[in-house]
Structures are given as structure tokens and as C-alpha cells.
Specification:
The complex is a heterodimer of chains A (258) and B (318). Helices cover 76% and strands 0% of the residues of chain A. Chain A is an all-alpha fold. Chain A has one domain: MetI-like fold, CATH 1.10.3720.10. With 318 residues, chain B is mostly helical. The chains are: A mainly alpha (258), B mainly alpha (318).
């Protein structure tokens, strides 16, 4: 393989610096003991400790976790059913239309999804609550969960384990329960983790359909950002970033198992 | 199958696969899984499609209908057909926002392409041994919350941000802080920062598929590096260029957080206008008309993409 010329290496290094520098600065200053300024005044965990003693913050974290778990479980369950038909059944009528329908949430700008759902819930006389939020998050989580699961079911199709099970007398349902499902489980879990991550860090859709009573972590960050840079927001945003990174890492490690 | 050992272990003892006559429940589920009949496939796909039809397509249809209604007193709706909301979007009060959105999104897309293409090129043709790591490093910013991305720029560029702190207090180069925020260039810079991975990933996807043998062949036939790029690599990467451009342009037009925090009313985009109509001004019909303009842009972009791709296929570039 050809070696990259020096200037190209430097260029790529520059791009990565551009992408990571601001976030790195933010993370570093979340450990800064100075109150107002970005001048470095010594290392501290104070802002994190302060966050963990703040009841409002703990509640926002709890809401975000509950929301993301609910959205992830629902989208993985629905996604598994749909992926099975998409990956395993021979071409049926409407398959292509369905595949394009599943792409719509990924293409649609989130602001449209937000105002659309807000209008929909208000016109349907549904009170905005935690559950309207779950319903909304499932919409944009579905493509991610389905994509991951479908890829695994496609690759399992090539293996002959199910055929072997059925040759030994298992019915399709038994083969699914005992063979396909356990083998697809890492991908199902990995799809759910991706959906969890997407839901956990979502701001735009949540912003429109959260109503007054429901405060998620990104909503909390947004309302704190309105008051400018504070060390607490640095810490909160750093935590959100680290949780996202952890979720993605888990997703890739699990999905990489195939 | 590299991990066949573990996979076999997951099967469990073979004798536990029951040989007795399957019950009616088992037979029903099996016939659904077998999917010989269309209804079985539809049954499995139904929950997901119903969810998307009810909570995605119906809401969009609803705002389409609402965009042709009028606003009554107290933000109520008057159900009579009118195109006034669309006409209003083209009045001197709102047209500049629309044009600015297109301009900013266009500039962002062009900059992302300019910055991202050499980067995606390097990722697909060099760095073979570290490629996996480099791609993962690109995925993290791709998935980062836009809120965190914007916030981190405020820390760097804000009035009391890092750059001003260094220039004014640490090194004493300036007597007063530079105003970075609330400038068009900063808003576009923020958009480029957030959407760059959306451009690079599709570019990488299509550049990676360019067969190295084509490039070797062009060289053997006497093409210089520029000719090789312009006649071989660039045409083959066009699907990625189109896809990346749509994935950058459309969300930029609808973005409202970047302009809200890094800019101000002078840099507001269509997304800010939509958000404002729904949350502050309570003029939902007008907000809906603005939202439908964005949907129309998306639809137009997708149609253009399909057309360009088909032309590419017909021209034999695949």
C-alpha cells in the first residue's frame, strides 16, 4: 500500500483537531476550579460533585434514561419483527415502499418531525407527557434499530444452522426460538444500544413535544446554556458526550461480533 | 463464519429440539415465519409501518393541511382555504431569511465538500492499517449531540471564551476581546463543524468502492495524476458527492440551534423561523407553510439525486 504524503497526513491531522479541539477544551474546563473564567486555576471534581447533589439534575438524568430505554426496547422489538420479514421473506408486495418509508425519519429534518408531532398531539387532544415523548423518539430510533438487526439476519441467512435445525425436525418457530434468536441477540442488543444513544442525546424533537413537566438531560443543558458558560454546564455536557461515546463503543463492539 | 465454535455452542444440545407433533400455536407462528403468504410478511412489517404512518406521515400531512389555513385570535385555527401563508413567506419581511438560509446552507455544503473531499480521499486510499480507528474517530462527532457541539464552540469563541482569554489576558495582544459570535462567518463555521461528518461519510462510502485497478489502468495508459483523478476517480465518487451534499444542505436549512447560540436575529435561518412561529409567535399556519417549504426542498433534493444517479448509471459510471 502506498504511504500517505506528509502534507496529506498533516491535513487529516488538522481535520481531526478541528473536530475534537472544542470538545476537548470543554472537557478540560469541566475540571477547572475557577468559577467564571476559562483561565485555568487548578484541577477539581467539584462541578461533578455539585451536579450529583442537585436533585433537578438527577431527575433529568433519570427521565433521559427511562425515555431512552423505553424507546430502545420498543424500537428493537418492532424492528426485529419487521427485519425478519425484510431479511428472510421472499419479495412481497410493498417491500420496497416499506424500505423507503423506513428511510424517511433519517432524511427528514428534525424540526419538521418536532413541529409535526406537536401539531398531531395537540390536534388529537393528547396531553404532552413522558409517553408522547417515547412515541416520538421511537419514530427516529426505528431505522437505526432495524438497520442493525436486518444486517445480522441477512448474514445469518447464509449460515446453515437453521437448516440444520429444521433437518433435525424443528419447526420454523422452534428454529427461530432456539437458533436464530440466540444468534441474532448481539445484533438486537446492539441495535437497541444505538437507539438508546440516539434517543438519549436527542434535543430537537424533544424540545417540541416534551411539554412542561418533562425535563431530559439535553433540555436541561439547553436551559442552562441560555445563561452562558458555567462550569456545571461543562460537566453536564461532558457527561452527555461520554455517555454517547460509551453507547457507540458498545454498539460497535457488539455489532462487530458477527 | 469465524466464530463458528461459539455459534455452535449457542445451539444447545440437539436432542432438545423437540420431535413431537407441533401444537397449533407453533404451527401458526411457523407459517408466519416461513412467509409463503403475503399476509405473513405484512403482519410482521405492520407494527413498524403503522407507527411510521401514524406518527410520521400523518403529522406531515397535518402540517401540509394546516399551512393552507389561517390563524384566528389567540392562536386558534380558522379552517378556510388560503394561500396567504405562502405569499407571506415571499414578502420582504421573510424572503431575506429564506434566501439567507439557502445561501448559508449552500456555503456550508461547498465548504464541507472542499474540506471533506481530500480527507475522505486520504481515508479511502491511504492509512490502510489505521483505517478502522480513523473511521471510528469520525463516527463520534457524527453522533454527538448538536447541543454539545455548539456549546463547545461558545467556550472557545465566546466573549469570555478561550481565544479571547488567551489573546487579551494571557498574552496581552489585544486590549478588548474580539466579537466572534453573532457573525455570519461564525454561524457558517459552526454549521461546517457539525455537518462535516455528514459529508465525509458518504464520500468515503463511494471513494472506498473505486477499484484500484481502474486507477492503475489509467496510469498505465499514460494519464497523469490530475487526469486520473478528473477522468476516473471524481466521476466514480459522484454518488457520494450528491448524497453528502443533500445530507448537509437540507438539515442546514432547518437548523435553528447554531444560529440561536452562535449567531443572532441577523443570522436566523428557516429553522429558527419555524421554531419561532410554533413556540413564540403561536402562528402555527404560517410556521407550517415554512415547514412545508423545507419539506419541498428535501423532496426536490431527493428527486434531483435520483435523476443524477440514474444519469450516472446510464453513462456507465455506476
Amino acid at each position: 500500500m502506498r504511504r500517505a504524503p506528509g502534507w496529506l497526513k498533516a491535513y487529516c491531522g488538522g481535520i481531526y483537531t478541528f473536530l475534537y479541539l472544542p470538545m476537548g477544551v470543554m472537557m478540560a474546563f469541566s475540571f477547572n476550579s475557577a468559577h467564571r473564567n476559562v483561565a485555568w486555576a487548578g484541577f477539581t471534581f467539584r462541578w461533578y460533585v455539585k451536579l450529583f447533589h442537585d436533585a433537578q439534575w438527577a431527575q433529568a438524568l433519570g427521565t433521559s434514561l427511562e425515555l431512552a430505554v423505553s424507546a430502545a426496547v420498543i424500537s428493537a422489538a418492532l424492528g426485529l419483527l419487521a427485519s425478519y420479514a425484510m431479511a428472510r421473506h421472499s419479495d412481497f408486495r410493498g417491500k420496497r415502499a416499506y424500505a423507503s418509508l423506513l428511510n424517511v425519519p433519517m432524511m427528514m429534518p428534525e424540526v419538521i418531525l418536532g413541529v409535526g408531532l406537536l401539531t398531531f398531539f395537540v390536534r388529537a387532544h393528547l396531553r404532552l407527557s413522558f409517553w408522547t415523548l417515547v412515541v416520538s423518539h421511537v419514530v427516529f430510533c426505528l431505522p437505526y434499530a432495524t438497520g442493525t438487526i436486518r444486517a445480522r439476519l441477512m448474514s445469518l441467512k447464509q449460515s446453515s444452522f437453521e437448516e440444520a435445525a429444521m433437518d433435525l425436525g424443528a419447526t420454523e418457530w422452534q428454529a427461530f426460538k432456539r437458533v436464530t434468536f440466540p444468534l441474532a441477540w448481539p445484533a438486537i442488543f446492539s441495535g437497541a444500544v444505538l437507539a438508546f444513544t440516539v434517543s438519549f442525546e436527542d434535543f430537537v424533537t424533544t424540545f417540541f413535544v416534551a411539554g412542561i413537566g418533562t425535563v431530559t438531560m439535553p433540555i436541561k443543558i439547553y436551559s442552562m446554556m441560555k445563561f452562558g458558560i458555567t462550569p456545571e454546564v461543562n460537566a453536564l455536557a461532558t457527561l452527555l458526550l461520554l455517555l454517547t461515546a460509551a453507547g457507540l463503543l458498545a454498539h460497535y463492539l457488539l455489532a462487530g461480533e458477527r | 463464519m469465524a466464530r463458528s465454535e461459539g455459534d455452535v455452542a449457542a445451539l444447545g444440545p440437539t436432542e432438545s429440539l423437540s420431535r413431537r407433533e407441533p401444537g397449533p400455536f407453533d404451527r401458526l407462528l411457523s407459517s408466519v415465519l416461513r412467509g409463503e403468504r403475503t399476509w405473513a410478511s405484512h403482519l410482521l412489517v405492520a407494527p413498524t409501518s403503522a407507527w411510521l404512518v401514524v406518527f410520521l406521515l400523518a403529522p406531515i400531512l397535518l402540517i401540509l393541511i394546516m399551512s393552507f389555513t389561517a390563524r384566528g385570535p389567540y392562536g386558534m385555527l380558522l379552517w378556510r382555504f388560503t394561500t396567504a401563508n405562502y405569499v407571506r413567506a415571499l414578502t420582504p419581511a421573510y424572503l431575506p431569511i429564506l434566501l439567507r438560509s439557502l445561501g448559508y446552507a449552500g456555503a456550508t455544503t461547498a465548504l464541507c465538500l472542499l474540506l471533506g473531499y481530500p480527507f475522505a480521499y486520504a481515508l479511502s486510499f491511504y492509512f490502510e492499517e489505521r483505517r478502522g480507528m480513523l473511521i471510528i474517530l469520525l463516527m463520534l462527532p457524527f453522533w454527538t449531540s448538536c447541543l454539545v457541539a455548539i456549546y463547545s464552540w461558545i467556550i472557545v469563541l465566546g466573549r469570555e471564551g478561550l481565544v479571547n482569554e488567551l489573546l487579551v489576558h494571557r498574552f496581552g495582544l489585544l486590549s478588548a476581546p474580539i466579537q466572534f459570535l453573532n457573525r455570519p462567518a461564525t454561524v457558517i463555521g459552526g454549521l461546517v463543524y457539525f455537518y462535516l461528518p455528514f459529508m465525509v461519510l458518504p464520500l468515503y462510502g463511494s471513494l472506498e468502492k473505486v477499484p484500484h485497478s481502474y486507477i492503475e489502468a489509467a496510469k498505465d495508459l499514460g494519464a497523469n495524476p490530475f487526469q486520473t483523478f478528473w477522468r476516473v476517480t471524481w466521476p466514480l465518487s459522484l454518488p457520494g458527492v450528491y448524497a453528502g451534499s443533500i445530507l448537509t444542505f437540507i438539515p442546514c436549512v432547518g437548523d435553528f440551534l447554531t444560529a440561536e447560540f452562535l449567531g443572532g436575529p441577523r443570522t436566523y435561518l428557516l429553522g429558527n423561523l419555524i421554531q419561532n412561529q410554533f413556540q413564540m409567535a403561536q402562528d402555527w399556519p404560517f410556521g407550517s407553510a415554512m415547514a412545508m417549504i423545507l419539506v419541498a426542498l428535501l423532496a426536490g433534493g431527493l428527486l434531483l439525486y435520483q435523476r443524477l444517479e440514474r444519469q450516472g448509471v446510464e453513462a456507465g459510471r455506476v
